[in-house]
Amino acid sequence: PNMFFPKSLLLYLSIGLCSISGSVQVVFNPDSVGSHRKKDKNVVKLLNHDSLGSTYLIVIWKEVPLHYHKDHFEQVYVLSGKGKMRLGKEELKVKKGTLIIIPKGTPHALKVTSRRPVRVISFQAPFFDGEDRIFIRE
């Protein structure tokens, strides 16, 4: 099932993940990442990882094509921007504060609808090295 959660749950998940992965903290300014890049290429920045999962900051200028992950689940938290997300057979509007949980094997895509890029935090488990991304042609 597709689920959206309040911001307080994101904080709870973050605290839980920190306690699982140790005391390492990553501090960053999401507005400073990707602003200098070409606006036709998405930016993916690895923030932290261990064998259990990976956390990325992703700046999406136009879209993320339809794809799925065979062996990974993903949680995406929207920091800024607006878009239309395809999740399975549903189309959802996403904006700042939206948390999307994507079970493994679920096709998903995003089209930016705002003038500025969509910036997200993506957590994937287990560790994601970019190889488990299977694109779907329609």
Task: Please provide a written account of the structure.
With 138 residues, the protein is mainly beta. The chain is 11% helix and 43% strand. The chain has 1 helix and 10 strands; from the N terminus they run αββββββββββ. The strands form 2 sheets. The protein has a 5-stranded antiparallel sheet, with helices on one face. The protein has a 5-stranded antiparallel sheet with strand order 6-5-8-3-10, with no helix packed on it. Residues 7-21 have low confidence and may be disordered.
- Largest sheet strand order: 1-2-9-4-7
Structural class, please?
mainly beta
* Average residue-wise pLDDT: 82
pLDDT < 50 stretches: 7-21
Shape: globular
What share of the residues does DSSP label as strand, in percent? 35-45%
How helical, in percent, are the residues? 10-25%
Which radius of gyration do the C-alpha atoms yield? 14 Å
Number of helices: 1
The largest sheet, given as strand count, sense and whether it forms a barrel, is: 5 strands, antiparallel
How many extended strands? 10
- The helix-strand sequence is HEEEEEEEEEE
Oligomer: single chain
Termini separation comes to: 23 Å
